[in-house]
Amino acid sequence: MARVQAALVAAGFRRYATYRQATFAGAFTNTVFGFLRCYILLSVAATAGGVMAGYTGPQLASYVWLGQGLLAVVNSWTMLDLAERVRTGDVVADLLRPVDPLWTYLWTDLGRAVYAVLTRFLAPLVVGAVAFGLYVPQSLLTYPLFALSTLLAIVVCFACRYLIGLTAFWLLDIRGVMMFWVFVSGAASGLYFPLAILPDWLATVLWVATPFPSLLQAPLDVIVERGGTGHALLVCLGQVVWTVLLLLACRVAQASAVRKLVVQGG
Amino acid sequence: MAELLDTARVYGRVLRAQVRSQWQYRTSMLLEILGSTVVNGLDIATVFVLFSVTGVLGGFTGTEVLLMTALSAVSFTWGDLVAGSADKLREYVRSGLFDSLLLRPLSALLQLAVITFALRRIGRAVQGLVLYIVALCVADIPWTVERALFAVIVPISGAVFFSSLFVAGATVAFWWIESGELANAFTYGGRDFTSYPSTMYGGWFRDLFTLGLGFGFVAYFPSLVLLGKPDPLGLPTAVAWGSPLVSIIAACLATVVWRFGVRHYRSTGS
User: Fold this and answer.
1) Would the CB atoms of A26 and B189 count as touching at under 8 Å?
2) What is the pLDDT of residue A265?
3) Bridge partners, B57 (sequence order)
4) Is residue A14 less than 8 Å (CB to CB) from chain B?
């Protein structure tokens, strides 16, 4: 069984490694936005006396540049093929395979994420480190926790996008859902600004009631050591809960979608 | 002259056909218009979330920042309405469909613009315009005749600037099909850059984007002119009045890039 998963991860990796121009173009764009957002947040922090919502200058620089890299790793803005395959009916072929499509898509997406870590994550990281200087974590434990938190972020984001893809069984056209997702996931995940600058009640609601902070804010808070190791563990625990809940939701939604599916013809 | 009118009528007819076909799915279209307006509103809200931290941005007060953000919004959304679909060129080049545009006795660029016109963008264009009018009303502007004229011209020149960017960015597809995101750095990146006062940025990045690429002339310098404020970065006010000129240069450059790209086009051969 492990061979199947390894093959799927490798396939996901290879599929994205083919598009070298797209990788370069994406990394370039992330880098330009990195400069933009970094200067903006640093300027706000400078006016506020050097610290903004508990983040110091180097922490903010890390926040922005790692966020730009992670954006491509969790890949929240690109939808899975699932919806298109539901629309065309190709999903039948996915369902006939001996591996549940949920896991097929997950392993392939992890392969994509590995490729993104090696290219789209590292490029802005290097530029940010050279141009601004990044925050160096004080505790060695932060590194494995960041890796764990990033992995959980990838799976949470995958599960969200899989759920959106599944809505195609009912809606056929997922553009409306997608627009809502892009609309909320950008701001509520901490891409534009750290959620801590929002009013306390709003930030709390986002953390407790929605999976969005698990996408970017969580791994970023871990790596800049906001609130220390205890807080980082709590953040990861929250991500684990969301991962389990969302994957369960995917199973339930898929089961009911498959019951609804009618295959025409022979 | 009569010939020109005839040509304009042809474009008008194609445009009307596009609008009518998109309007067939009325609920879907209304939802998309609403959705893109809300998304755009959120982008503008982001500026004011950051503003709320200290009550100033880059040394400018609320109404001053609003003027810059609104000017950026109106310029971007109208540029986007006119030429934002130019990035569809990628699909035309990939599939070889661009051949059909070249075969007709009309400008390929204008054909592309009317054929790919997206009605859903109208919502945020109206929103941008309303925001700009509100910003003009609440900002502390020492009105003169020149300033009033400038206030009318500047959003148009900003829209021309962004349209030029969309066209130049899309043209890259003639060489690099998978490069769609490259243009985003300057179109959407440019919108984000111009939403904030240029004083917030630093180093070579600020010089490159504000002066080198001309983004400062979309919202930052025109706002200073309207507010009657000197530039904290030290550029003479006379230069700031030259925003429309920068847009004309941008449009000329985009035309040259486009022509060069079209000559470079090789069909898929299928």
Assistant:
1) no
2) 57
3) B60
4) no
- Would A266 be classed as within a structural domain? no
Q: Which of B34, B94, B165, B182 to mutate to test the interface with A (most CBs of A within 10 A)?
A: B182
Residue of A nearest to B209 (CA): A36
Domain containing residue A79: 2-260
What does the alpha-carbon distance between residue A187 and residue B213 come to, in Å, rounded to a whole number?
A: 28
The DSSP string of B65-99 is: HHHHHHHHHHHHHHHHHHHGGGGGHHHHHHHTTHH
Q: How many domains does chain A have?
A: 1
Query: Distance from A29 to chain B by nearest Cα, in Å?
Result: 5
Q: What is the DSSP letter of A99?
A: S
Q: Which amino acid is at A142?
A: T
ipTM: 0.91
In chain A, what residues touch B46 (CB-CB under 8 Å)?
A: 187, 192-193
Domain boundaries, chain B: 2-264
Give the orientation angle of helix B26-54 with respect to helix B2-23, to 10 degrees.
90
Give 10-residue mean pLDDT values along chain A (266 residues).
Answer: 88 90 91 95 92 92 95 88 86 88 94 94 95 92 95 96 91 81 87 91 94 95 91 95 97 91 66
Residues of B in contact with A26 (CB under 8 A): 181
Residue B127 near residue B41 (C-beta atoms within 8 A): yes
User: Chain A within 8 Å of B98 (Cβ-Cβ)?
Assistant: no
For residue A265, being part of any structural domain is answered with no
pLDDT at residue B145 greater than cutoff 70 = yes
Sequence-distant (6+) residues with CB within 8 A of A82 are A91, A101, A105, A162, A165, A166, A168
Nearest CA-CA distance, residue A64 and chain B, Å: 14
